[in-house]
Amino acid sequence: MFLFRRAREDRAFREAQRAGHALLLRLQATQPWPNFPEPTSQAPTAGEGVVPDFLPPELRVPSRQEVAGVMMRWLQPLVVDGEVRTCPECGAYRDWIVFCMRDDSIWLRGRAGHETKEPGLDAVWFNRHSGPVDQFHPSLEEGLRHLGH
Description:
Elements: H1 2-30, E1 69-74, E2 79-80, E3 83-84, E4 96-101, E5 106-109, E6 115-117, H2 123-129, H3 140-146
C-alpha cells in the first residue's frame, strides 16, 4: 500500500510541475518583455568608475569598511596547536565569543568579559568554522546580547 501511495504522490507532483511550466510559457507568450535600456559602449571617465547603488538602503549589506568585524560563539574548549586556550585573567576555557576583525586578527572574549588576542588563529580559520552572517548589529553590546553573552 505504501509503495502505491508514493507513486501517486510523485505522479501528482510531476503533473503540477508540468501545469506550472505550461502556465509560465503561456504568460511569457502573452506578456511583452519590459523595455530595458540598451547598454552603451562608452568607456567610463576617471570620475565615473564607481557604480551607483541600485538597492534600497534597507536591503544593502554594509561594506567591509563599515563593519568593524564579525563574531561567532564557540561553546566547546578552543584547541589551538594542540593546546586548550584559557583566559589569562580568569582561566575560563570554554564559551568564547570569537571576533575576526577588519585587519584579519582574531580576538577571544570570555563570559567574564576579558578579551585577548589569539595569534594562533587567523581569518581563514574563522571563515572555515563560522556560519553565514545572519545579522548585523549597530553596537558590540547588541551583538553580544544576540549571541547570549
